[in-house]
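Weekly puzzle thread! Below is a chain. First person to post its structure in token form gets bragging rights.
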Amino acid sequence: MRTPRQSGMTLISFIIVLAVLGVFAFIGMKLFPIYAEYYAVVGSMKTVQAAPGVAKMPPQKIWDLFSRNLYINYSKNVKRHHVTLTRKGGYVMRVAYEVREPLIFNLDVVAKFDKSIDLYRQDPGGD
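Winning reply:
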């Protein structure tokens, strides 16, 4: 007579799987706001790029427009010294910043972002 075989996870292996999934979920919860903010910064840069006459604006006005968009998007990590405007026909806006978030005890998550965008937009009736 054949004995029935049972298959499946034991309680210990189930707890181990839950612990591993919990660690990945915890890391994901720490990383999601960092990347959500990055995509908000990129969106703010694209909003500045789409502004009419941006290639002819002075740098202070470009920064004001960009910082208002950052404020609307609740971006707290990008400061004025992270943004550089280089004159090349229009402007090239570069935002380079680093985010450091504590993970657990003395371990931190560090994310470095560096994005450039051309501000060469011409006005429809422009030169």
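Puzzle host: Confirmed. Bonus trivia for everyone else. The CA atoms of residues 3 and 9 lie 19 Å apart.
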